[in-house]
Design brief:
- The protein is α+β, with helices and mostly antiparallel strands.
- The chain folds into two domains: 3-108, Alpha-Beta Plaits, CATH 3.30.70.580; 116-236.
- The protein has helices at 3-6, 28-42, 88-93, 130-142, 189-195, 223-236, and strands spanning 11-19, 58-60, 69-79, 100-108, 116-125, 147-152, 155-160, 165-171, 174-182, 185-186, 205-214.
- Strands 1, 2, 3, 4, 5, 8, 9, 10 and 11 form a nine-stranded mixed β-sheet that branches. A two-stranded antiparallel sheet has the order 6-7.
- A hairpin with a 2-residue loop joins strand 6 (147-152) and strand 7.
- The chain is elongated and about 60 Å long.
């Protein structure tokens, strides 16, 4: 092996990305394949897994649900040698389909892995009754406990989602909320919808995840600021949301 090989310094890079428009229908596996392909095209020294089918060492902090727009998701990639992250988002974006864009990139400790602490959401539903929604939101916030039972492949499970939902509001026909990690569980949007009397679940809801909070990052703008930016951006019909001091576009 050459001296250059031993002088290499493996690094880990954290990317923020968005999944918008028609791209929201991409599955998690399809999204991973898209990023792997784009990273290969850059020619950068990405690290690979071992075995007969090596893959780029790429991991997502949280799976992005199909049919949900995502504005600031996170994935992390290992590189075999130190690289200059300035301009890397533009290189990756050249290989991405419409609606998927990397927004920022930063070096993090090699052994570090992003741990989500909160998720911010916005939702709009067809036929929601504004007066009923406000009443149900006030009732939820006034409750000390809100048990919700879900049927999963592993069986029936009941979770008290009240402590997980730290912020909740309804304004201009739009529901917005923040969910926290409580004993390893984040309240799911469909659980909250059922707790608010929306028995049809999220199938008739236009759902967007505005942000993912990480334990090793500063919290940044408040949920209210994010909602304001989201409404302004959506009203312009643009393709990127801009959160102050947080996203490079």
């Amino acid at each position: 092996m050459t001296r250059d090989f031993f002088n290499r310094e493996r690094i880990r890079v954290r990317f923020r990305f968005s999944k918008r428009g028609d791209a929201k229908h991409m599955s998690h596996l399809d999204l991973a394949a898209v990023f792997e392909k784009a990273l290969r095209r850059t020619g950068l020294p990405t690290s690979y897994t071992s075995g007969f089918n090596p893959r780029i060492c790429l991991s997502f902090v949280s799976a992005a649900s199909t049919s949900m727009e995502c504005l600031r998701e996170v994935f992390e990639v290992e590189f075999e040698d130190r690289i200059d992250v300035d301009g890397i988002t533009e290189k990756v974006n050249l290989g991405l389909p419409a609606g998927v864009r990397t927004l920022s990139a930063s070096c993090i400790p090699l052994k570090s892995k992003g741990r989500p602490t909160f998720f911010d959401y916005s939702a709009r539903g067809a036929g929601w009754n504004a007066e009923n929604m406000r009443t149900n939101v006030r009732g939820f916030l006034a409750s000390e406990s809100v048990p919700v039972t879900s049927v999963r492949k592993s069986g029936t499970k009941t979770n008290d989602i009240r402590r997980s939902v730290s912020e909740l509001g309804f304004e201009d026909d739009e529901l917005y909320f923040r969910v926290l990690d409580v004993s390893g569980h984040f309240a799911r949007p469909d659980e909250l919808f059922r707790a608010l009397g929306l028995e049809e679940g999220k199938g008739d809801v236009d759902l967007a995840r505005l942000d993912v909070g990480l334990a090793d990052e500063e919290e940044g703008p408040s949920l209210t600021e994010k909602i304001t930016s989201w409404k302004t951006e959506r009203g312009r019909g643009g393709q990127e949301i801009r959160f102050k001091d947080k996203v490079e576009v």
